[in-house]
Amino acid sequence: MTGNSLYGPLDPAPDAGWTDAPPRMGFFTDTSVCIGCKACEVACKEWNLVPDDGFDLLGTSYDNTGGLSANSWRHVAFIEQRGAPHGDVLGAAAGPQFLGMPGRDLPGRDPDAPRTDFRWLMMSNVCKHCTHAGCLDVCPTGSLFRTEFGTVVVQEDICNGCGYCIPACPYGVIDQRGDDGRAWKCTLCYDRIGDGLSPACATACPTQSIQYGELSQLRERAADRVAHLHGQGVGEARLYGHDPSDGVGGDGAFFLLLDEPEVYGLPPDPIVPTRDLPAMWRRAGLAGLAMAAAVVVSFLGGRP
Amino acid sequence: MAEAHPVGFQYVVEAKNRGARVIHVDPRFTRTSALAHTYVPMRAGADIAFLGGVINYILANEKDFREYVVAYTNASMIVGEDFQDTEDLDGLFSGFDPDLRVYDQSTWQYAGQGDVGQPEGAAHADRETASGLEQESHGPPVPADVPRDPTLQHPRCVYQILRRHYARYTPEVVERVCGVPRDQFLEVCAAWTANSGRERTTALVYSVGWTQHSVGVQYIRAGAIIQLLLGNMGRPGGGVMALRGHASIQGSTDIPTLFNLLPGYLPMPHHRQHETFRQWVDAIRHPEQQGFWANAEAYAVSLLKAYWGDAARPENDWGYGWLPRLTGDHGTYQQVLDMIDGRIKGYFLLGQNPAVGSAHGKAQRLGMANLDWLVVRDLFEIESATFWKDGPEVATGEIVPERCRTEVFLMPAASHAEKEGTFTQTQRLLQWREKALDPPGDCRSELWFFHHLGRLVRERLAGSTRPRDQGILNLTWPDEEPSGEDVLREINGFDVVTGEPVPNFTALKADGSTACGCWIYSGVFQDGVNQAARRKPGSEQDWVAREWGWAWPSDRRTLYNRASADPEGRPWSERKKYVWWDPDAGEWTGYDVPDFEKNKPPGYRPPDGATGVEAISGDDAFIMQGDGKGWLYAPSGLIDGPLPAHYEPAESTVRNPLYGRQANPTHKVYDRADSPINPRSAVYPYVFTTSRLTEHHTAGGMSRQLAYLSELQPEMFVEVSPELATERGLEHRGWAHIVTTRAAIEARVMVTDRLRPLRVDGRVVHQIWLPYHWGGQGLVTGDSANDLIGIALDPNVLIQESKAGTCDIRPGRRPTGGDLLAYVEQYRRRAENNDG
Amino acid sequence: MSRGSPRGGRGRGRGGDRPMVPPAEFRSYYGRPIVRPPVWHHDIAAYLFTGGLAAGSALLAAGGDATGRPALRRAGRVTALGALVASTYFLINDLGRPARFHHMLRVAKPTSPMSMGTWILSAFGAAAGVSAVAEAAPLLPGPLRRLLPPLGTAGQYGAAVLAPALATYTAVLLADTATPSWHAAYPELPLIFGGSALASGAGVGLIAAPPSEAGPARRMAVLGAAFELYGAHRVETTKGILSEPYTRGRAGRWLRAGRALTVLGVAGAVLGRRSRVVSALSGASLLAASLATRFGVFDGGVASAADPKYTVIPQRERLARRAEDGQPVRDPRAT
């Protein structure tokens, strides 16, 4: 383990020991063209034989999936927003809110009062396949591994359901399947991309909201797309997870968003927990020494 | 479009990325609105007021593409003196017969042609048989020598009539009727007109819910008028495109599953109007008429030859006597009522689920419960196969399973992936589909089913000498099950002697030497090759992509594309060039197959007395029309008027702000107790409309059985605005029930700003939206929205008004059992007494 | 609703005394958690206790043996083994696929505290097991009776050497997650867990040993409690909004109970030194305190993951600090 392997920009496949690794592959999910058709969710389940996630009307706009889980490896978020987006959460007093339930101050109660713009944001979420993957770092069995494409995959014949990967993910992606005990998540269709196919979700996406390809090219394309949207007056367009210098070394699956990440249920500034692992071990060592010292003092110090 | 046609919507997204402006007009904010630049909410059922406003804007501001309009539309034609408009008669056109509630259309004719109109009572028969529009699509009897005024100044020219008719559809009126703010409406007008003309074209894309109104045909007509005025027809990037409700709905009218048509839009003969073969053929081709329908006899004879082969001979009028005849209204709703009355004994359902998917679900189920036998061919055991044991009427005691007489035969069907064949989409493109896998178990294709059904019926009838059996016994029916390609080959047509496929419909003959299953599809097997199976990727050919699939007629990708060139045959602009006249070669050329006689120069003028194809002028771009022109004004053929006028839906909460006539004066209703219509009453104070969710398919037969789809929209719900939720005390995710005079259904409540109250004619109108996917079978079940809807039909095509109705909504679940009937009845009584 | 108004959410951290804009609100996706709460059941909380108890007991045994206190040695060795067996049960029981527990031994992975812990626990288990079995030597036949005691002594010191690692790695185990309040507590958690382990070991000594031998246990209790209370105080007061989950709800109740029991146990241990009964009660109180502390820390982390504000607000504050520091380029190391 080099110091950099826990943190900072790097190419994960060679770092994991792959020689002659192919280019790193990933997803660019452009939410500005997502129409919320959920074809990605269905295609993913069809290909990967993921079970259904229960038949519950959640009342969260058209999202009846709720979030990524062991049984939903793609999740389309729906956000109904009244009012213009505001840039800085910290500074602004008023923000868009969920309108799927009645609030106290209903809009348009007075039919003559003008309504502000209404937005319906949709976004297909997925495992980020982080450069520094918390789940992979902490997996004690080696079930989670880094593929030659730089993606992160669970080997289901190895996983013993220890559950450690689940809180280790800064995005809350990987999850345990209740009746099965093991951890499951997006594999970026490891069994397809190895044969030169695109992942099922990207193949099914009708509007190319989900784009699959070499990560370096996707990053260029995404930058162009943001510039294009800014040129069209969509100033709120921003990339998320594209930056190799971010807290997880950049995501293998990154996004173009139209609002702050947390609006979509994404952490605004995720950091791989393992970044601090050396410091943690040092602290543990110090505490251990303190314990030893306390024992020595206890047995020797007070001897009558 | 994003909601129901997500795959097609990719092209909207692509256009948007290239700078196109996307405007979405809809009663509710949908997934399409989410990606549109501008969302315009409007009241359901007020579309003609909106479109009429656009027409008025175009005419008042002279935004029409004048050269195009003069050359290619009937704007300059002069209408007879006796014509009176809705302006003169407060919502009626001249010729209205208040007893039959139909028009005598003779006063609508062009000047000097008044006597060419329909015989007495014809309009009534046309409504009964939904054949009014046949005359439009076939080109009605319009001679070529109509007086014209190319300056468009004559007070009775179509252009001026249009101006006067739409003058009252001002932005203020649009706001009053539709609830669309004036400036937003003008924004739409400005965008539409600015993007049309010589250099640019605009496509009008609608989903078929647009047709589902008591004035549905006139909705489409209004869209077509705009597109003609702006020069958007027959040109690349233009047109009026219907997004169909299923794969191959276009195909199912081309080779129809309709009671009143035969393949290729040949009319089903009527027992009185078309007693003889000659009467029938002449009614199609109109001997004095110009245009391609003049060859209809060849198409008709070839069809009969395809049916009866060697048994179709000149001496027996090609077997015309064996064709079934229409005797009146055999439309789906009349049939249902006939079933209730015990007049229909047996019924086939093929991939259709009327117990959930058709209007007035109760009538559908009660009708099916009164049959001798019912054959249901579907992928799953759908509600239309189980209504007799667990339908809503079982709970209310209206159907008693032990006494239900209907014997249901559920035949498992193969899915689209389990059989080969073509789909025909909205652009008339036939696309061949391979079989991906064998159907499971006993599931079989329709081809298999009908081949063997026909074989068995013919075996039972073998040797019969009864006249009524001869039509079946003489059919060309192979002993072996044919392949899908065999069928396509017969549809294409062939030389009966050599068996060689014909190259296209111009090769069809009226002498019995050719057979053809559907003349407009002729050419799909050109050169013995399945042209529909062509799949050259778009990236490997030009942008018209003519090597992908096959378009009827004769592989023309854009109909009437002669209009993409100016009257002299030159492209209107370099940017929009498509098909043009090459004077050196003496032929029409371009990116597409010219929809015009290849060597007829633009300057050609027909000699006096010419008929048929010969009578088509060099600048008659609309070659199927009797006068060669695109019709702004329909001098005949439409049962409810030559011009679209705004009428309120049959069920409406507001009085028609435009005319004294409340609803379409000619719309069809069945005046009987079991087919009631909500009166305008405070008892039913809200407007509702229904449509689809992306996650489910129509009546849910294919989607509610699949876990991966069911989990995405697991429950029947109703969308209401926060204001209505407050007004009625509805709770988000709680229960509510919706009541009309026919039914009360329950649903979970979705309170959302995607629906908003509108201010219409000075008062607030609340709209409710319902998906119609749920029924009693499947992984997820719920009440059916179609149970709410009544039987009020468009007079031209007998389509039901299922996109605008009135209702009440109340918190909590609906009553059950007998209480439900009493509850609905009590609403009905209160409405009759106008006891708000 | 996606709005939240965190109370007392003023950012603290390396920002020092720079004025900070308190977040007026945060946004989320229907209030759903962003990071996923651990799927671990209270087996793991219990293991935190039993693992610490095993470590504390092993240290007690070694100290007792080295200083000639057989009661401490005996109690420590036996308790260490008992706690170890319980730990193993809890750990395996919590697995989604218990039959695959041995997959833990496929790899040794420094980035995985659980993997390191597995090996620590295995080695500790072997050593502690031998030393506990050696206590039974007098009851065994000849060769074993002679052979076991030296092995037991070696095992005892081996276990004692591993004990601090066993007691503190669990702190890293929790801290090396995205669970906000666990991760934020990583500097102090080892001290709390180490102290708690010492106090629980001391508790065993107080219960098992006569007053004459219990002196070191009392001092261990005092020192352990001091570590634990100091660490817990830091965690509950210096983590900004992330201290909140430790002070509220079930976690708050556990930790307050733990603190009270610790104080009670230490007081009893110091003041009741002449009474075997008071000493034993004090020991029991310390054991209960350790258990409560572990459950409190566990539940505090779970609570911090369940509410998105604990993920969003600290990260927003971090971004705001970076923006204030004029760091356009993301460098989270600056936090």
From TrEMBL, chain A:
Gene3D superfamilies to which the protein is assigned, alphabetical: 3.30.70.20
Localization of this protein: Cell envelope
Domain (4Fe-4S ferredoxin-type): residue spans on this chain: 25-54, 118-149, 150-179
InterPro entries per UniProt: 4Fe4S_Fe-S-bd (IPR017896), 4Fe4S_Fe_S_CS (IPR017900), FDH_Electron_Transfer_Unit (IPR051555), Formate_DH_Fe-S_su (IPR014603)
Record keywords, A-Z: 4Fe-4S, Iron, Iron-sulfur, Metal-binding, Repeat
SUPFAM superfamilies: 4Fe-4S ferredoxins
Name under which the protein is recorded: 4Fe-4S dicluster domain-containing protein
Species of provenance: Actinoplanes sandaracinus
Upper classification of the organism: Bacteria, Bacillati, Actinomycetota, Actinomycetes, Micromonosporales
Automatic annotation (TrEMBL), chain C:
Compartment(s): Cell membrane
Family: Belongs to the NrfD family.
Keyword Transmembrane helix: yes
InterPro entries: Electron_transfer_protein, NrfD-like
Leader sequence segment: none
Domain of life: Bacteria
PANTHER family, per the entry: PROTEIN NRFD
Transmembrane segment boundaries: 44-63, 75-92, 119-140, 147-169, 189-209
Pfam family membership, one: NrfD
UniProt KW Transmembrane keyword: yes
Gene: nrfD
Coiled coil start-end: none
Keyword field: Cell membrane, Membrane, Transmembrane, Transmembrane helix
Location of region: Disordered: 1-22, 316-335
Membrane protein topology class: Multi-pass membrane protein
Organism: Actinoplanes sandaracinus
Protein name per UniProt: Polysulfide reductase NrfD
Primary residence: membrane
